[in-house]
Amino acid sequence: MSENLDQSYLPRDGGLPRLLSEQCATCVLRPGNPMDLRPGRLRQMVNAGVQGQGITCHDTLTYGAHPDFGPALCRGFYDRFGHLTNFIRICERFGGFEEVDPPGEENE
Fold first, then answer.
1. For residue 54, what pLDDT is reported?
2. Which terminus of the chain faces fewer neighbouring Cβ atoms within 10 Å, N or C?
C-alpha cells in the first residue's frame, strides 16, 4: 500500500497536484499501444483510474526512466477521462493542478 502512495501525483508539501502539460511520448492512451500492454490491461487501468485518483504517468514513476522527476497525473487520462473522475473534479474545484512539462531528453 505505501508503495502506491509513493507513486502518487498528490503533493506531500501542501502544493497543487502535478499534471503533465501534454502527453508523454509513450503515453498508454496514444494510438497503437506504445507500451505493449496485454489485451484488456488499458481498460482495466482506465476503469481503476476513474474509480480512484486517475493514472500516474509511467514516465514519472520513481522506478521509471526519470526517477527524479516526481510523479505527475497522466495527461492522456486527464484529457479523456478526468471529467468522469470524482477525485479530479474535486481537485479542479479546489485550485486545480500544477502543470509540468513531460520528462524527456531536453530535461536530462
1. 94
2. N
